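Before a colleague's protein record goes any further, I have to sign it off. Thanks in advance; the entry in question is below:
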Amino acid sequence: MASREEWVGRTGQEWARRGDALDVLLGPAGDAGLEALAVGTGQRVLDLGCGGGASTERLAAQVGPDGHVTGIDVSPDLMELARARLAGQANVELIEADAERHAFTPGGFDALFSRFGSMFFDNPPAALTNLHSAVRPDGSAVFVAWRDIMRNQWASVPMTFVAEEMPAGTPNMGAPGPGPFAWAEPQTFVPLLEGAGFRDVRHRTHEFMAELSDGDDPDPLERGLSFMMRIGPLASRLKGAGDEAKAQARSFLSRRLARHVQDGALKLLASAWVIEARA
């Protein structure tokens, strides 16, 4: 799920249309990763899968005018958002390319950061080896990735509908291959990182209440349902489904999620890894 072709196409377009909503969802875990990376002024940082540029902007503020941040993403639509957001920022460069194949300057960065951008490579060993070569020896790296889908209600609750109402062809969210939960288990990402040359790999959990909201409906439940129907594993499963299936999904989720509205928003438990390593 969410291969390179999808990021260049429909998935990237959907994420770009809802850039602000995604920053709200992903922001708390991204902030935990930035705190762990703790870059200093004057450093050169690579922001892998920079998306609409929110993490790139934060990193640029941290490294200051004497530092430099390079954001890289494969999605043209997300990169358009990032260019608009970071226009005129002298210490930022944005590259629209696949980090798996891009020719980075060897050792050109002091640090590598990724907010949910490391789980989608077609060839993870090749991609991580290429990224490792881009970081100077003993440079730092932090990757933020989702834990198991069952620890993430924002994904597991809508997929309950798929399992109960659309069981035929239900995708295995833990299956090998690119996707949001490809790094759900340490036995997957630790060998990948070590095999690429990273060392001192360590990881900790970061749990938070994820806010889901899309659009301007006054009902927070409706805004949350709108998000789930357009972004995430349910949206992928409903792609190409008829209006009846989509209406059934909305009705199912409305019943299941009403009790999760708090403080004017739909909030569900989320759990991520903050993974630290050295080059």
In short: The longest helix spans residues 19-37. Residues 8 and 75 are 5 Å apart (CA to CA). Residues 169-174 have pLDDT under 50 and may be disordered. The first strand starts at residue 44 and ends at 48.
